Amino acid sequence: MDTLSHTYSDDGRLLFAELSGSGTVTFHYNQARIDSASYRYPTYGINFKGIYRYDEEGRLAEVRYPNWYTSLRKKESRLEIDSFYYATDGQPTGMSTWAEVSDHITEGYLPVVEREFRYDQGGNIDTIIAKEYYSTPNFGWVANTRVTARAGFTDHRNLLYESPERDFYIPSLSPYLHEREESMVTDPWGNSKGGHVAEFIFTPAYIIPEGYYTWSRPYICF
Fold it and tell me: What are the φ/ψ torsions at residue 58 (nearest 5 degrees)?
């Protein structure tokens, strides 16, 4: 079983994220902002970087990975860019991941996942609508739609953030946890592809549901 661990400075800065048996991410700062992240996979002798960019309001605008590895064993990588979108009041409205795609069917700089966030009256993201793209021989680059409904929001803070001091340094959509989520997936033509229900139980040793992803891309935790 993988073990996820984070190391912080005394003032709440995330310094390292490590997934046992996999890799380590070291976060670098320019004053109060994460400036870049260095990725190291000792087993495969691979090192690469993620570069953070902020907008004029100080909000996270983009994280660029010039060589995000899609296959560590084969040492295959591609350009990936995560972009973030905001309403006029500064509330996050979505994020997208674009990449340089090159397979037997499709080539180009294309969207891989596009997410739209919707909020309840309490300010929680209660619905995420995601377009998840893939190649098809007959129709090219198409997307399934995944609609995830989230409920049971609590005042538990996930272990990545845990305190307002950490929120100050780590770009976060929501540091609070939810108890249940239900997702349904449809293909590009509206046909159901099924779904899943997940329920989360909180203990002092609780690991965030998105933990596997957030060890390497902490801002994806929501």
Answer: 85, 10
